[in-house]
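Batch job 17 of 40 flagged for manual review because the log was empty.
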Amino acid sequence: MSGVNSGGNSNPSGTFQCYKGSQFPEKSTWATWDALWKINLPDMKQDNSDAENEMVASTIQSIANAAGVDPRIVLAQAMQETKGGLHKVAGDGKQSYGILQCKVPNPGDCSTVKPCPQSEITKMINGGVLGSSTGGTAQEPGIAAWMTKENGNVGAALRGYNTGGGTAGIPNLNDFSDVGAATYTTPSYVSSVGNRLMGVTDANIPQQAGQLSQCGFHDPA
């Protein structure tokens, strides 16, 4: 598929590694869109129908490309946030739902709706990519705004997206596992998304506690 996505590795190894400090895999080493979609599709099928997955693929591509964001980043985030599921509810008092699980006004909700209509899928992906200009949410900017703010530094942009807190910037440019004073956030998030871009699937990515121990990430506790 054409667009912001440019090439990549069509045969990724899928081996997990720790991305520490400000480390993040180079774009030229990421798996291709087609490879990422193929290896993640089995996990997505646990929650979505084939027709829904087709809409997810085309919507990620169109919205990300229009925003100047590599669609592979959005797909990797979706897998990290919800395993690409449309019918999820986050553990945050129903403030966020499926796909990129972002806290924006009217984020798109198919937690009790099957099949999920295109309009709701678009909201879920728009919220994560474009964010919201409306105040009062913990995570207003989308990944596109964070990519601009952090001058294309994908690791820094992902830390900003996960930490949230408006446009204040990320806690530590030298350590993407440092979440500062944020609460609903994950120190291993940037490393996990980086691994997903390299073709590592959910089954081979250690959970948060495992990564804190294995990778020596900043422990907010």
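Reviewer: the log was empty due to a logging misconfiguration, but the result itself is present. The chain has a mean pLDDT of 85. Unflagging and moving on to job 18.
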